[in-house]
Structure formats: structure tokens, C-alpha cells
Amino acid sequence: MIGYIEGRVLARRERFAIVLTPGGVGYELELPAPVAASLPAAGGQTALFVHTVVREDALELFGFATLEDRETFRVLISISKLGPRTGLAILSQFSTDELLHIVAAGDAEALVRVPGIGKKSAQRIFIELSYKLEGRAPTAGPAAGTLLPGGVLGDVVAGLTNLGYQEAEARRVAAGVLDDEPDLDVGGALRQALKRLAAAKA
Q: What is known of its domains (predicted)?
């Protein structure tokens, strides 16, 4: 598996680049838009962390500026029904730090800014991200305009109903969680609500 590439930029476009390694092999990599934009012009040197996808009919390489961004991409594509192209679209819109701030603030609506992601999909992706990014902390303060306000109870209920729970049950459990822990953000409240619902079915 290819995990890292250093070499000379042969060509670059909005979402991909071809990098020629010292061994004489040129690798074509798909990239988040900010990474592609930051590459040097043709002839310049670059180094990228790589995620490799092996298919029956293709070998696809996805390049990232940092190891952290590659790990975030792997988290994204582990989400059900979220493929590599959507993962790249999300990282073209938000940095890893911004995604961590979005999760911390319970701002599921922010994901709707990504082309191709609607409100229902954003809620589903947000819920899974809340679990998968748990324990990771942003390294910088939130960028201006990144976070959007919203009612925690309403967002938790919306998230649960999008997962298939009945609204009455979702509202009852969400309200109980927030009564017990009123300082929880949306991500924390969703996690607690899902734990209670799972325990009730056990």
C-alpha cells in the first residue's frame, strides 16, 4: 500500500496532480481543493501522505498535506454511504480542525455547505462523526463563521428521527438526557441519547 510520496509536480488541476518520484514513476493523486491549490507549479517539489484504494479495475490514490488530514479522510470514508469523492468534498470545504469544532458545537447544519450533502445526510454524517472523532480535540480556535447556533434539543430530536426513531420517543429520551446534563452540546447529547435507546432495547 502506498502511504507517502515525495517528488516533482508534473501537472496539477483543481482536484488532482501528477507527482513524479525520483524512481521515475508518475503517480496521479486526487486531492482536496485546498491541497491542490497549495501545490507548487509544475517542476516544484512536493510531499503528500497517501490513502490507497484498490479496486478490481483501478488503483486510486488520494493525497493529503498532513497525516492528520489523511486520518480524518479515513474516518469519513468509514461512515456508511460516504465514499472517497464525498470525503474529498468535505475536506475541500472544512479542515480537520473545523470538523472537530463542528462536532464539538453540535453544528450538523454546517455539513449542508458541502456540495451533494443534504440536510438528512448531514445529520447522519454528523452523528457518526460524533462517535468516530470522539476524543480528538482541535488545535486552534474556530474559524469565523464556521459554527452556527441551534437549539440542542431540536437538533438531537432531528438526528434521532433521521436515524429512524419515532419523534415522540426521540423527544422523550433527548429531554431526559438534557434534564440530567443540561450543559451537553448536540454531539454529547446525541451520544447519550443513543446509549439510552440501545440500553432500553437490550
A: Has three domains with a flexible linker between the domains II and III and assumes an 'L' shape. Domain III is highly mobile and contacts RuvB.
Answer whether 0.90 is exceeded by the pTM: no
Q: Which of 161, 151, 169 has its CA nearest to residue 105? A: 151
Distance CA 159, CA 70 (A): 27
Q: Which of 22-31, 102-111, 133-142 has the highest mean pLDDT?
A: 22-31
Q: Which of 122, 135, 132, 67 is nearest to 93 (CA)?
A: 122
Contacts of 25 (CB under 8 A, 6+ apart): none
* DSSP three-state, residue 143: coil
Domain ranges for the chain = 4-64, 67-135, 152-201
Tell me which of 5-19, 87-101, 156-170 is least confident: 156-170
- Cell numbers for 126: 454528523
- The pLDDT value recorded for residue 142 is 45
CATH code given to domain 4-64: 2.40.50.140
